[in-house]
Amino acid sequence: MIVITGGAGMIGSIIAWHLNTKLGRNDLVIVDHITHEAQWQNLVHRQYAEYLDKDQLFDFLEGNDDVNAVIHMGAISATTERDFNRLVEANIHYSQDLWAWCTEHQVPFFFASSAATYGDGSLGYDDASVDKLRPLNGYGYSKHFFDQWALKQLPENSPPAWAGFKFFNVYGPNEYHKERMASVAFHTFNQFSQTGAMKLFKGTDNIKGSGVGVKDGEQQRDFVYVKDAASIVAYFFSAALTNKPAPSGIYNIGTGKARSFKDLATNVMTSMGKTPNIEYIDMPLDLQGKYQYYTQAPMAKIRAAGYKSPMTSLEDGVKDYVQNYLMQDDPYC
After folding, report:
1. 211 pLDDT more than 80
2. In the beta sheet, which residues pair with residue 164?
3. Which of 85, 109, 243, 275 could form a disulfide with 159 if both were Cys (CB 3.0 to 4.6 A apart)?
4. Confidence check: pLDDT of 121 > 90
5. Backbone φ, ψ for residue 214 (5° rounding)
6. Among the listed ranges 61-65, 129-133, 211-215, 309-313, which one has the minimum average pLDDT value?
7. What residues are paired with 113 via a beta bridge?
């Protein structure tokens, strides 16, 4: 069986979708702690063997010798989380305990890191090294800490195969419970549907005193479709069950191509069959000084690890998301 923590979340539930529909695996144990009233709907189309609250997992694992892999997507994922003690417990200690169990029982372990570990991007986005990075918030630091800790366990205190995934800006179905932290694609669809316009942040003439500016709406991200993110995780899982697992390590998950928020919002509106209408607003105070103006994921390392499938273009990903999910009576994957 396959344990998926955070399995009722966006990425976790789409990993379950991929395992169900592409690999024919229904022996899934979904682990989560649902707090949003509608989040259970991320599971209604899934086939799985068991659902557990996150606090029940270790009792379930005790004496269990049927686990093929642990896919650990569960975390506090809000970049605005201010309680660092909660981040330590959920994102560091819980992950360390799962790593220790997988090491003891020789079970492959795959976990979610984040592009938030790269901070403002001034040190680049190279997944070949995690040293000297400076995250901009407690969430990013909690992920960075665990990345560093995992690498320090090598080689004798590690699962037989493992990988950490630095997810860049993931968008797509089953993110509806994330509220403010949902993707700009989701917010564009809703805001444009309700008001006839989408509000994006104004640019600046001087990013953090660098003398470099950015135009309105031209802040850039590496937007990755959630089905691609799930496909990559499933590739590492599948390889781990063979005698040629993919190399263990920390990997970026993006597309390798930065696109602007203006591009993203425009594609959402055109996918709705509408004429785009964008308005520009000042950046909120709580994001000033903690905002990434540009991210782009180098993908050479993951390609070298054997993942060959092409990444979905922004245009194709947004079209699938809008027309096959957001515009449907049942938007869940």
Report:
1. no
2. 111, 250
3. 109
4. no
5. -145, 140
6. 211-215
7. 166
Give the β-pairing of 50-53 and 69-72: unpaired
CA distance 139 to 92: 10
pLDDT in tens, 175-206: 999 998 899 999 999 999 999 999 999 988 76
Pick the CATH number of 2-172+224-256+296-311 from 3.40.630.30, 3.80.10.10, 3.40.50.720, 1.10.3720.10: 3.40.50.720
pTM above 0.90?
yes
pLDDT > 80? residue 287: no
User: Which residues does the annotation mark as catalytic?
Assistant: 139, 178
Distance CA 230, CA 183 (A): 17
Q: Which residues contact 131 (CB under 8 A, 6 or more apart)?
A: 148
CB under 8 Å to 108, separation ≥6 — which residues?
68, 69, 70, 102, 159, 160, 161, 162, 237, 240, 241, 245
Beta sheet of 109-114, edge-to-edge order: 50-53, 28-32, 2-5, 69-72, 109-114, 162-167, 249-253
Peptide bond into 155 cis (omega under 30): yes
DSSP of 247-278: PPEEEEES-S--EEHHHHHHHHHHHTTS---E
- Cβ(108)–Cβ(160) below 8 Å: yes
Mean pLDDT of 27-52: 96
Domain boundaries of the chain, sorted by first residue? 2-172+224-256+296-311
